[in-house]
């Protein structure tokens, strides 16, 4: 079978088996992806918008949370359907349907959304560390860069371990707020009234403030990167790709989505109810800062409630940062065919998010972080249309989805949700620009920078909507990073005349020598290379005469003599200092045409710390490299 696209999250694609299972075991096999997605629905960004909404307007915005959750359930189920039926994540499907320039723009917008999400997690983690351990915010922000190591470790352990960690974090958050609900004792009747919608379009200042918070809540709840993430995560389940298999996968993933997102709704509602019960009811109407919420909880209810609050904040921030990394990998590989190491991508995303957080602390003080949090969620909401509109197009396409294309009723609800999101965002942007112009009518940057960007984004949104309608059956195969397979006509055997073998005097040496001899036989010349890495060797090179160097000479000579006694033409070469550079230099000088190297068998963390000689050599030489991995006992 010839795949026309690259597997989404290839290292864990189809890694969780669901076949030959029945009943609750079958359900448990599918549970997991939506929990990773739900983390984004209860991250520190949600906290800021929920606290701001609850403290300023009491229970009046609970209906916005409820409607947001319903929209999220609908859109996430569509994302899961796309991943299951077409075997494509949302970024890959966009790559097939839109031209390169549009995909590049969509990638930039999606990346901005991930940075905005990451910004919220940085601020939340830093605030949580300060509240619990009195660590200055600037240090807390800087420390968040270290979570790259945790993410790398969990990714290396497999999808189930990653899901287990995330679910444990969700459990901590949920339990913390369940206890806090008993402490604050909310007014149940007023909470019920909060599910009745209120008019956000009156035009007065209060309605405008409610609209801003409501859009922030929508942006914090229905996150664009979660749609990319969910369409990919469902592909970690290995299913039978038949009509029956698709139906079962869609059904069980719907259960997964409903359970996980309703849990997220409970947490969000609990935060808003907590703010309304603790602050609005006691006359604190402008608690937009998470730090202020902690202090007021301590003032009103003692030490237990704020401690639970801070623990839940750290847990939500730490779990959200992992899902943001996965989403970053999906949009980068899907939209622009760029594949880099997960730890490097995580590091770059985190640095890009840390910069505005540090800038805000230094220039606007700690009180500016709350406003930055809410702004980050509004940015997420503004980007949402660029993920939702293509998703609806792709899942409505009967030619490619077949019997699993969404029906008319679902399509109508999905387009209504998209229209609501785009309309609210358009109103917010328009009112914001009007405010800027009325406040400073002579400001040039509004007309030269802001307005052109807004117009460009609006045109792109219209294009994203119209393009699939005009080219309904146009679908290009995705260009995968490694290209399309070439036609093979004839294969001639390659013979090597000079083979280099790297020696490190470990158990792996025998395997390396055996594989080298298999390539060249007794006709080839063999150069055994060992590199002395002592401090003296790095500074003095071949002039070093320490004890370790002398022992290495003797050991290498033993190998050479053994090969000669067996009838092979062999010689030894000692390199000094950096292993990769020394090996590459010997290979070039000796005119080697093939290299056999041993892999140390490091785990991902050791490779990250110590580096990999194999990868470095591979980039420094122009000859084939055979890597021999030690056999596990």
From TrEMBL:
Transmembrane spans: 62-84, 104-127, 133-153, 165-184, 210-229, 250-280, 300-326, 347-365, 371-392, 404-424, 444-466
Topological type in the membrane: Multi-pass membrane protein
Domain UspA: start-end pairs: 496-629
Any Pfam family matching the protein: Usp
Subcellular location: Cell membrane; Membrane
Keywords: Cell membrane, Ion transport, Membrane, Symport, Transmembrane, Transmembrane helix, Transport
SUPFAM superfamilies registered for this protein in UniProt: Adenine nucleotide alpha hydrolases-like
Keyword Transmembrane helix: yes
PANTHER family, per the entry: NATURAL RESISTANCE-ASSOCIATED MACROPHAGE PROTEIN 2, SOLUTE CARRIER PROTEIN FAMILY 11 MEMBER
General function of this protein: H(+)-stimulated, divalent metal cation uptake system.
Family: Belongs to the NRAMP family.
Protein's name according to its UniProt entry: Divalent metal cation transporter MntH
Gene name for this UniProt entry: mntH
